Amino acid sequence: MSVAILGGGAFGTALAVAIGQKRPVTLWARDAAHLLEHRESPRLPGVTLPETVTITADLEQALDKTAILFSMPMQSLEGFAAQISTPLTGKALVACCKGIDLTTLQGPAAILSQHWPQATPAILTGPSFAADIARGLPTALTLACADDALGTTLQEWLSTPTLRLYRTTDVTGAELGGALKNVIAIACGACIGAGLGDSARAALMTRGFAEMTRLAASLGARPETLAGLSGLGDLTLTCTSDLSRNFRYGLALGKGQAFDPTVTVEGAATARAVAQIAQKRGLPLPVCTAVAHLTDGSLTVQDAMTQLLSRPLKEE
């Protein structure tokens, strides 16, 4: 098996560094010239790409590999895939993005399957920051693939001494865990930014996790998947760390401050997509829906908390 990573952002570069410690890997990037000259990404200062990483701006060179990792923002995946005419028959296509496409209301696996029905989609997700992976800090992720034999091969090829992958066949559960935790992280950031306290954050994390599990189960996922790395693990990390872009975005919302528009915040678009799905399926997802309204400016943080706290009392 040969490995290529599409996307020279922080996460794609970090994966290239990690996997490159173990085997050759091809990294396709739009700014390949900078990476070739410096062998360092400006998004990961101080981290050098090993010589086992082949950097290229030739997309066809990367698409020639047998395992292709798509490391790009979720809202860019559909457009990127639509530009590629190469059939990719028989290849393993691993999505490393987290979210739900706002236009199609699909997750990354469905988008990859739609464009390449003769390939096998997989998801790489879980609690991780690019800088931790790149610096060789211990990290555990979920590798989800419906084809368990291929999933086992990918698990062996992509795991490293410091990057440990756990395998599952529940692709839907894994990708929804990674998508929905970003929505809850925005809620938690807004909670802290507004000065509502850690107790309120704990409540949002817990009730948010219940919503994650409820939606995932309604879409055919296994509830236990959400209790793993791709769900609860990632939720814990992103709701409690200032390194999380989604948490920082929520923090800015809570403080009434502007947020850097150049920073990708996957949870904002995903929240709006989830609100549409919840309405279509008749699912009560009050936290996710509140975040959707927060991000489109139709609801203030204080009004959102008032709405959540005034809901009818119920059993847990």
Automatic annotation (TrEMBL):
<feature type="active site" description="Proton acceptor">
    <location>
        <position position="181"/>
    </location>
</feature>
<dbReference type="InterPro" id="IPR006168">
    <property type="entry name" value="G3P_DH_NAD-dep"/>
</dbReference>
<keyword id="KW-0560">Oxidoreductase</keyword>
<dbReference type="InterPro" id="IPR006109">
    <property type="entry name" value="G3P_DH_NAD-dep_C"/>
</dbReference>
<feature type="domain" description="Glycerol-3-phosphate dehydrogenase NAD-dependent N-terminal">
    <location>
        <begin position="3"/>
        <end position="149"/>
    </location>
</feature>
<comment type="pathway">
    <text>Membrane lipid metabolism; glycerophospholipid metabolism.</text>
</comment>
<keyword id="KW-0520">NAD</keyword>
<feature type="binding site">
    <location>
        <position position="98"/>
    </location>
    <ligand>
        <name>NADPH</name>
    </ligand>
</feature>
<dbReference type="Pfam" id="PF07479">
    <property type="entry name" value="NAD_Gly3P_dh_C"/>
</dbReference>
<keyword id="KW-0444">Lipid biosynthesis</keyword>
<keyword id="KW-0963">Cytoplasm</keyword>
<dbReference type="InterPro" id="IPR011128">
    <property type="entry name" value="G3P_DH_NAD-dep_N"/>
</dbReference>
<feature type="binding site">
    <location>
        <position position="126"/>
    </location>
    <ligand>
        <name>sn-glycerol 3-phosphate</name>
    </ligand>
</feature>
<keyword id="KW-0547">Nucleotide-binding</keyword>
<dbReference type="InterPro" id="IPR036291">
    <property type="entry name" value="NAD(P)-bd_dom_sf"/>
</dbReference>
<feature type="domain" description="Glycerol-3-phosphate dehydrogenase NAD-dependent C-terminal">
    <location>
        <begin position="170"/>
        <end position="305"/>
    </location>
</feature>
<keyword id="KW-0443">Lipid metabolism</keyword>
<feature type="binding site">
    <location>
        <position position="181"/>
    </location>
    <ligand>
        <name>sn-glycerol 3-phosphate</name>
    </ligand>
</feature>
<keyword id="KW-1208">Phospholipid metabolism</keyword>
<keyword id="KW-0594">Phospholipid biosynthesis</keyword>
<feature type="binding site">
    <location>
        <position position="98"/>
    </location>
    <ligand>
        <name>sn-glycerol 3-phosphate</name>
    </ligand>
</feature>
<dbReference type="GO" id="GO:0047952">
    <property type="term" value="F:glycerol-3-phosphate dehydrogenase [NAD(P)+] activity"/>
</dbReference>
<dbReference type="InterPro" id="IPR013328">
    <property type="entry name" value="6PGD_dom2"/>
</dbReference>
<feature type="binding site">
    <location>
        <position position="245"/>
    </location>
    <ligand>
        <name>NADPH</name>
    </ligand>
</feature>
<feature type="binding site">
    <location>
        <position position="263"/>
    </location>
    <ligand>
        <name>NADPH</name>
    </ligand>
</feature>
<dbReference type="InterPro" id="IPR008927">
    <property type="entry name" value="6-PGluconate_DH-like_C_sf"/>
</dbReference>
<feature type="binding site">
    <location>
        <position position="11"/>
    </location>
    <ligand>
        <name>NADPH</name>
    </ligand>
</feature>
<comment type="function">
    <text>Catalyzes the reduction of the glycolytic intermediate dihydroxyacetone phosphate (DHAP) to sn-glycerol 3-phosphate (G3P), the key precursor for phospholipid synthesis.</text>
</comment>
<feature type="binding site">
    <location>
        <position position="130"/>
    </location>
    <ligand>
        <name>NADPH</name>
    </ligand>
</feature>
<feature type="binding site">
    <location>
        <position position="245"/>
    </location>
    <ligand>
        <name>sn-glycerol 3-phosphate</name>
    </ligand>
</feature>
<feature type="binding site">
    <location>
        <position position="244"/>
    </location>
    <ligand>
        <name>sn-glycerol 3-phosphate</name>
    </ligand>
</feature>
<protein>
    <recommendedName>
        <fullName>Glycerol-3-phosphate dehydrogenase [NAD(P)+]</fullName>
        <ecNumber>1.1.1.94</ecNumber>
    </recommendedName>
</protein>
<feature type="binding site">
    <location>
        <position position="30"/>
    </location>
    <ligand>
        <name>NADPH</name>
    </ligand>
</feature>
<feature type="binding site">
    <location>
        <position position="266"/>
    </location>
    <ligand>
        <name>NADPH</name>
    </ligand>
</feature>
<feature type="binding site">
    <location>
        <position position="246"/>
    </location>
    <ligand>
        <name>sn-glycerol 3-phosphate</name>
    </ligand>
</feature>
<dbReference type="Pfam" id="PF01210">
    <property type="entry name" value="NAD_Gly3P_dh_N"/>
</dbReference>
<keyword id="KW-0521">NADP</keyword>
<feature type="binding site">
    <location>
        <position position="234"/>
    </location>
    <ligand>
        <name>sn-glycerol 3-phosphate</name>
    </ligand>
</feature>
<feature type="binding site">
    <location>
        <position position="128"/>
    </location>
    <ligand>
        <name>sn-glycerol 3-phosphate</name>
    </ligand>
</feature>
<comment type="similarity">
    <text>Belongs to the NAD-dependent glycerol-3-phosphate dehydrogenase family.</text>
</comment>
